[in-house]
Each structure stands twice: as structure tokens, then as C-alpha cells.
Design brief:
heterodimer, A: alpha/beta, Rossmann fold, eight-stranded mixed beta sheet, five-stranded parallel beta sheet, about 25% helix, B: alpha/beta, two-stranded antiparallel ribbon, 8 helices, about 25% strand, globular
């Protein structure tokens, strides 16, 4: 039975349920490493990696099998995925990031993760005794609420804090200007890279207008400057859950799906039948969006006029 | 004190073009790589562009132009990616190529790259936030750990102050927020997609790239223990790869666009979302 360390933030935060669900899937002897900024100090990657290493390497539990696998589970967030690889190096552990499933079988520990922009998935095993794994937030299989384990260990300041001066926080700012209300929208039409270019975004905008929907954008559309960042749906943009979500030419990266999978009805229109977006869609049309979307717009306008 | 100018190292990974058709290899443990297009991973292209922009900004400010060195680990085919980086304006290239370096995971590869970066005494290391193939977002953190220097992931803006040898960077957080940080050199930055629009190589650049230095290094040249890199140094092994399941209960609508559109509207009316 593995010894499983669940890393939890004292302030809560995304991924807590998924981390516990992963611990349960590993069926191990679970304990919580609780990170409190008040105690450890302001976040810096080297500091947090060092603090966790000290706690885990101490081997808190007595009378344990010294050969039992050790698994450290963290959420794959913008903070913990930044320092988790450094923790793995310090523990001499394997590193397996953004897992969507975990299990223990005859071959030992097994983790599943998406590769190649969610087009394929890989089953991976650690070759070392210790492994650091991060859990994909919102995508860990069977993430029903799991109780917090009874054993809670407070993470302290690390013995070696030379690297505490590694970054100075100057401030926080909004990434975009705002003005687009995606969070409370009932319907969203999102333009993906498949729309083709800045001049073709209008095909999505026209469908959005016909549906009374807000206009969303996938990350590549924003990165290419076809739409401003305030339109971005996904883990680095807006997390949305409208009644109707229409994805036009969106491939469906993990980060995008995380931002919209809570939508009630998801429609995907994409000419690539292998696009991962189809695995979350309730209705899928495998066709050129430049044919289907204008046809939809025409029909919706006609429907409105006859109503 | 170093009298010479700064040196910026950029680490790039050559990956299969994700738009190309991917086939699972007969072994079931990876993809069939016999018929793939290979390209520089998209975030790494942004890292290259950011290095070129930082060098140009130093020059326009009257400071000495930093030297730009590109690094990549992989088999012979990787030379093409390095030549492309040289064509974009990087000064020289290092190819980490050795049978013993093949088959590594992010930790093994990070160790090898860190050894090369340390030998070249890079003041600033830029690389992509995650690769388009495995997307582990781990190699840059491992490099920072091995070099023992400050690190930031998902960097959306970089300003370099060569006098104070420090950086002012913007890092992406969740939910549309950014964080502004100050880091001292030497440092490792993992560049997020969207920070810039990577340029295309000019014909002149492509011709010049042929004459720029491209050095090959193996384990002994890097001074790394072959047991800590490549397959031997990898902490993980892939047991199987598979296709994700098709949509759970999703309805696929076929037919010409007008009929498909009409059928979709009928479904949406039944779902009461129109």
C-alpha cells in the first residue's frame, strides 16, 4: 500500500476535491500536507518545494514499510504545477503531471494523462519508489467528494531558505480590459482556430448575434490577435457554464474543456472528426464550419422573424 | 564581474506537427513516427521570439547586444529545428545528440540541458511553458532546480535590466489575472503562448544560418553521467497510448450543411435552449 501525501492549501483553492479523489483511487494510507502561507512564507517555487521536501523526507509515520511507494499528489494549478517538478527532483521522485486517472494494480502504480493536445492519452508508470503527481482540475475521473484524511501535517519553513529571495511580488493585475460578460451569459458561441483568420471571426460573431449569445474565443484565436483576450474561454480565461455552448472550429484542448465542460448543452462543429472537442459535445457536426454556421445563422434569423 | 555582455540561452523541442495525422505505433507505447512532420513546439517559438526581442531592446537602448544561443536535445532530425532558430536570428546552436540521451523524461532531459546551459554560462534561460506533444510543463522547472536559480512559469511579458541584472516579468494566473514579479539573474523563464507573434525567417536569414556555428555535444562533452539521462535516467515509462473514448452519448449529425443545421435546431428546440 502506498503512502499518499495530499498537498492542500490552507485557504482552499481549486483542485482540493480532485486531489482527495486521486488519493482514494490509490487506496493508500492518505495524509494531508497542509500549506499555510502564514507559516511557510510568501509563495516562491523553491521555497515551497523545499518546505514540502523537508516534511515528506522526514518520514513522519513510524513503523512503515520502508519500501512502500510514496505518492505526493498536488492539483495542477498555476501555482503548484510551477513548483511540483522541483519537488520531484529534490525527492529523487518521478514526475507525472496533469493526470486524469490513477490506480494500483499488479504492475504497481499507474497514471493516465492526455498527450498531443488531448488527441491521445498515455498510461504511465513510475520506475522510482517515490512519485510526484499533479491532478488535472475538473477532469479527474470520479471526483465525487471525498472526506479529508484524519492525518494532517502542517508544512513548516524549510531548513534551507536561501532561495526565499528568489522572487519579489510587485503586484497583480487583470489580464484584459473586461467588457465581455461571459460568466453570466446564457449562450456562448466560441470561435476556435478552425475559423481560419481574423477576417473569418465574423462567421462566429454573426451566429452569436442570431442566437443572442456572447462571443467567446479559444486561446489560439486570442494569441493570434483575432479577438481580444476578454473573450477567452478556458483555464487561463473565463470558466463558463451557459445553457448552450457552441464551439466553432475549436479543437478542445484540456485547458479549453476545463473552462466550458460545465455547460448544459455543448455543440461542436469541426471538420476534423478526431478533434477532442467531440468527446465532450452533446451534438456534433463533422463539417466545414464555414458552410454550417452561415446556414444556422440564416435558419435562426428566419425562425425569429416567423415567431 | 563579467565584462562581456549577457548571454541568453533558449531551449527548444522538436515535436510532431499536431495537425498531422497521428497513428499509434504497433508497439502501442507511442505514436508511429515514420510519417510525421516535425516542427518547433509553439511555445518554444515564442521563447525564441522573446529572446530576439530582448536582444533588440538592449541594442535600441544603447546596451551591448546579448549573445543568443539555442539548445535542443534529440536525434539527427533536430538539426533542422536548430537551423531554423539560427535563420530567425540566433547566433549559435548546441545540439545535444547521443544515443545515451534518447528516451529521457522531463527530469532526465532537464538535467542534460542544465549541464549544457551551465557550461555555456547563460545568464538568462528562456523556453516554452509546455511542449505541444507531452505538455508536461516540467523541463524548465527542472533546469531551474538543477541550476539552483529563480524560475517563473507562464510568463506573459519580460523586461530585462542589464545594469541591475534583473527582470521584471508578468506571469499568468488563473481566472484572467496576472502577477508582476521581479527576479534576479541568472533565471529561467517558461514563456507562455501569446506573449508575442513569432516572426518568420527571411531568405537572407536562412542563407546566413548555414554559416552559423552549430556544435554537437554528447554525454562526455557535457560532463553528465549517462545513468542520469536518457532512458536510464527517466523516472517514468509509458505502458500504453490509446485514443480517448468517443463522446459519451453525443449525437453526431450528418448530411449537407443546410439539413444538418435544421436538424441541430430541432434538437436544440427539444432541449429547450433556444
Amino acid at each position: 500500500m502506498p503512502v499518499v501525501w495530499l498537498v492542500e492549501d490552507a485557504r482552499g483553492g481549486p483542485g482540493t476535491q480532485e486531489v482527495r479523489a486521486c488519493g482514494r483511487a490509490l487506496g493508500g494510507n492518505c495524509r494531508v500536507a497542509r500549506l499555510d502561507e502564514e507559516r511557510v512564507g510568501p509563495y516562491a517555487p523553491g521555497l515551497y518545494a523545499g518546505a514540502l521536501r523537508d516534511l515528506i523526507a522526514q518520514g513522519e509515520g513510524e513503523g512503515e514499510d520502508p519500501t512502500a511507494p510514496i505518492v505526493v499528489v498536488l492539483p495542477h494549478t498555476y501555482q503548484s504545477a510551477e513548483y511540483a517538478p522541483r519537488l520531484a527532483v529534490r525527492l529523487g521522485a518521478a514526475y507525472i503531471p496533469s493526470v486524469s486517472a490513477a490506480a494500483v494494480d499488479d504492475g504497481g502504480l499507474r497514471f493516465r494523462r492526455s498527450i498531443l493536445q488531448a488527441r491521445l492519452r498515455a498510461d504511465v508508470r513510475p520506475k522510482t519508489r517515490a512519485v510526484v503527481a499533479t491532478v488535472q482540475v475538473g477532469a479527474f475521473g470520479g471526483a465525487d467528494p471525498a472526506p479529508s484524511p484524519a492525518d494532517v501535517f502542517e508544512v513548516g519553513r524549510p531548513a534551507d531558505i536561501e532561495q526565499n529571495q528568489e522572487r519579489e511580488i510587485l503586484g497583480r493585475q487583470a489580464a484584459s480590459a473586461g467588457g465581455v460578460d461571459l460568466a453570466s451569459a446564457e449562450r456562448i458561441v466560441t470561435a476556435g482556430r478552425g475559423v481560419g483568420g481574423p477576417d473569418e471571426v465574423s462567421v462566429a460573431a454573426e451566429l452569436a448575434a442570431a442566437l443572442d449569445a456572447e462571443l467567446g474565443a479559444s486561446r489560439p484565436v486570442v494569441d493570434n490577435g483575432w479577438l481580444p483576450r476578454e473573450h477567452q474561454v478556458g483555464s487561463s480565461g473565463h470558466i463558463v457554464a451557459p445553457n448552450l455552448y457552441v464551439a466553432l472550429g475549436v479543437s478542445g484542448s484540456i485547458q479549453h474543456v476545463m473552462g466550458m465542460s460545465g455547460s448544459r448543452i455543448i455543440v461542436a462543429i469541426n471538420k476534423d472528426p478526431e478533434a477532442p472537442i467531440f468527446s465532450v459535445a452533446h451534438y456534433g457536426i463533422v463539417a466545414d464550419l464555414h458552410d454550417v454556421a452561415p446556414a444556422l445563422t440564416r435558419l435562426l434569423k428566419a425562425r425569429r422573424q416567423s415567431a | 564581474m563579467r565584462e562581456e555582455g549577457l548571454r541568453i540561452g533558449v531551449c527548444i523541442k522538436q515535436v510532431p506537427d499536431t495537425d498531422s495525422h497521428l497513428r499509434i505505433a504497433d508497439s502501442g507505447r507511442g505514436i508511429d513516427d515514420s510519417n510525421l512532420n516535425w516542427v518547433i513546439s509553439s511555445c518554444d517559438l515564442c521563447a525564441l521570439e522573446e529572446a530576439l526581442l530582448l536582444a533588440e531592446a538592449q541594442v535600441s537602448r544603447g546596451a551591448e547586444r546579448p549573445e543568443l544561443v539555442v539548445f535542443s536535445l534529440g536525434p539527427e532530425r533536430v538539426e533542422e529545428a536548430l537551423r531554423k532558430a539560427l535563420a530567425l536570428g540566433v547566433d549559435r546552436a548546441l545540439h545535444l545528440v547521443d544515443e545515451a540521451l534518447q528516451g529521457g523524461d522531463a527530469i532526465a532531459d532537464g538535467r542534460a540541458l542544465a549541464a549544457a546551459l551551465a557550461r555555456e554560462r547563460c545568464d538568462l534561460v528562456l523556453t516554452g511553458a509546455q511542449s505541444d506533444d507531452l505538455g508536461q510543463a516540467a523541463t524548465p522547472a527542472v533546469i531551474a532546480e538543477v541550476l539552483g536559480c529563480p524560475y517563473a512559469w507562464l510568463v506573459m511579458a519580460v523586461e530585462l535590466d542589464s545594469c541591475s541584472r534583473s527582470l521584471r516579468i508578468v506571469r499568468e494566473l488563473e481566472g484572467g489575472m496576472n502577477e508582476v514579479l521581479r527576479l534576479e539573474l541568472p533565471a529561467v523563464l517558461a514563456i507562455q503562448a501569446g506573449i508575442n507573434r513569432p516572426r518568420f525567417a527571411s531568405l537572407r536569414g536562412t542563407l546566413q544560418a548555414r554559416k552559423k556555428p552549430l556544435r554537437r555535444e554528447d554525454c562526455s562533452g557535457l560532463g553528465v553521467d549517462p545513468r542520469l539521462v536518457g532512458t536510464a535516467g527517466a523516472g517514468i515509462e509509458t505502458e500504453a497510448v490509446s485514443l480517448p473514448p468517443a463522446g459519451a452519448g453525443g449525437v453526431v449529425i450528418d448530411g449537407a450543411s443546410a439539413e444538418a443545421a435544421a436538424e441541430l435546431i430541432a434538437h436544440l428546440e427539444r432541449e429547450a435552449v433556444l
